Amino acid sequence: MIQQRISDLKARRNAIILVHNYQPPEIQDIADFCGDSLELSIRAAETDADVIVFCGVHFMAETASIVCPDKTVLLPDFNAGCPMADMITPQALAAKLKELGDMPVVTYVNSPAAVKAMSTVCCTSANVVKVVNSLEEKEILMTPDRNLATYAQGYTDKTLHLWPGWCPVHDALRPEDIETARRDHPGALVMAHPECRPEVTALADAVLSTSGMLRHAAESDRTEFIVATENGILYPLQKACPDKRFYWASESMVCPDMKKIGLADVAACLETLAPEVKVPREIQQKALAAVQRMLEIV
Ligand code: 13P
Ligand code: SF4
């Protein structure tokens, strides 16, 4: 059985398998730890394994490589990227800062390592408000997600300058989708990810990271939930709360990049120790300062 082979290889390599909440069920089932971007970067920073198998997308494996430069970080399918992370480059960021004047840059972890290296501090969907309010300056450039920045703007008196980036999966959700889901499931509580458009988050009962949704659903006395994020989250939600019911806000909320990794890819990468994600030392050290500053805030 392939799961047994993965387990044997994992022991042989002294490896840990970190898995994002959107990954396919069979990948979540072989995880040493499953979580949101923030929890996964904390776990990567803490592990004493030699090899980290990162089942998620490229920027997440890069973040693991930033916090663990001496470990082997494997991304079982090297083509698993994030279109939002590709909406910013170091050159474009430098040009924007020239235009706006010097100011702190808060960069969402869904970004390339070279952009993190130019940033003051990173943030995730779980800590964006805390990170923004931790800065002394009154004006901040937020990259690359305009929706996350707009969400944070609602919880700060600072002026946030937005970068024109977005997640194609979350940004496609419309208020009408929430209204239809509410009509179909009256009484259900709506949880939305802050990557959704402001007109969508305005209709939600709670705006949360993926693991925030897992905690909120477990702690709530409500029994039915409409979930406005990538649909892979329904599997851990249902697993954590078997007596509650979860409905997607739209069946089209599927991130193709999060579905690329299969069990055979995990076994193969443990066998060959490839494909490896390695951030060049100079970028890694600068990016680490921005990631570490974030980790000290939460
Ligand atoms: P979380 O950090 O909330 O898990 O989100 C990651 C992501 O890519 C959302 O699209
Ligand atoms: Fe990127 Fe969106 Fe996929 Fe998350 S869901 S990995 S932000 S494309």
TrEMBL record:
Keywords, sorted A to Z: 4Fe-4S, Iron, Iron-sulfur, Metal-binding, Methyltransferase, Pyridine nucleotide biosynthesis, Transferase
Protein origin, superkingdom: Bacteria
EC code(s) of this entry: 2.5.1.72
Pathway: Cofactor biosynthesis; NAD(+) biosynthesis; quinolinate from iminoaspartate: step 1/1
Record GO terms (molecular function): 4 iron, 4 sulfur cluster binding; metal ion binding; methyltransferase activity; quinolinate synthetase A activity
UniProt-listed NCBIfam families: nadA (TIGR00550), PRK09375.1-2 (NF006878)
Protein name, as recorded: Quinolinate synthase
Organism: Desulfosudis oleivorans (strain DSM 6200 / JCM 39069 / Hxd3) (Desulfococcus oleovorans)
